[in-house]
Each structure stands twice: as structure tokens, then as C-alpha cells.
């Protein structure tokens, strides 16, 4: 019973205005498209000039480069699985852009966070930028920083 309640609570992500609901639907479908390895649908949610920022400091992927990198992964029949457990969406007063942050449940990264910007283009919300990160607890930061620095010194 407890797991059923938890599942219901995590699926109920608050979105109040029609624009917020529309943005949430785009993000939910984008994540679902990756889990279903639907490459066309996944990249269809990205604007032509979109940028995906990955967890590695070297990962700044313009849409075309990101799609070229991800294509073999999608061809395997399953890309990645992100599920939002919390999301906050803000729509600009003119209703033409929105920004968000979301906590993600992921099998490979563990707890993660996504944030980004969408714009309205011809009646459709498109992702302009998505920034994927792995939140590091403050108590672990000194150790993680040392590991990153040591990794950077490795030839």
C-alpha cells in the first residue's frame, strides 16, 4: 500500500496554468520518447538551435551533434530513462518562453536534476536548452572536488 501511495505522489507533478501544463506535457513526452527509443519524437521536441548540456564538463551538445552521438543508442531500442519526481515551471509574462527545473529519478545516474528553457514556436513549445546535472550533497563536495581535480591531472 505504501508503494502505491508513493507512486501516486511522485506522478502528481504540480502544473497550474494551461501553459505550465503544456510545458510539463512536452517534458514528460520528451523523457518518455527516450525511454521508448523514439528518436524522431525525442529530437522533435528540441528546437533547431537547441543545446543539451550533459553531466560531463565536456558535454555541450548542439542538437545535430547530440543527435549524431545518440543515434546508435536509440538504434539499440532503449536510450535512457528519466522520470521527473518534482518540477517547477515558470512561464514568462508574454507567454512565449518558459524555464524549469526538475528532480529526476534515473537508473544509471541515480538522483539527477534537469533544468532548461523552452520557447513557443508556431503554437508549439520547443526545448531550447536542457542542462542535466547530478546534485552533490554539500557534505561530499570536498571529496568530489578532489576527485575531479585529480582526474583532470591524469594524462
Automatic annotation (TrEMBL):
Gene3D superfamilies: 3.10.450.50. It comes from the Bacteria. Residues 23-137 form the SnoaL-like domain. This is Nuclear transport factor 2 family protein. It comes from Candidatus Geothrix skivensis. The lineage of its organism: Bacteria, Pseudomonadati, Acidobacteriota, Holophagae, Holophagales.
Amino acid at each position: 500500500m505504501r508503494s502505491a501511495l508513493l507512486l501516486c505522489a511522485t506522478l502528481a507533478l504540480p502544473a497550474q496554468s494551461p501553459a505550465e501544463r503544456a510545458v510539463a506535457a512536452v517534458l514528460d513526452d520528451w523523457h518518455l520518447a527516450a525511454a521508448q527509443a523514439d528518436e524522431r519524437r525525442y529530437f522533435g521536441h528540441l528546437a533547431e538551435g537547441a543545446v543539451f548540456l550533459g553531466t560531463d564538463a565536456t558535454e555541450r551538445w548542439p542538437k545535430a551533434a547530440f543527435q549524431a552521438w545518440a543515434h546508435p543508442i536509440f538504434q539499440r531500442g532503449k536510450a535512457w530513462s528519466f522520470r521527473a519526481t518534482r518540477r517547477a515551471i515558470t512561464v514568462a509574462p508574454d507567454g512565449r518562453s518558459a524555464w524549469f527545473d526538475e528532480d529526476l529519478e534515473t537508473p544509471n545516474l541515480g538522483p539527477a536534476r534537469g533544468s532548461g528553457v523552452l520557447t513557443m514556436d508556431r503554437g508549439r513549445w520547443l526545448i531550447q536548452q536542457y542542462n542535466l546535472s547530478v546534485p552533490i550533497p554539500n557534505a561530499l563536495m570536498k571529496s568530489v572536488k578532489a576527485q575531479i581535480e585529480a582526474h583532470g591531472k591524469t594524462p
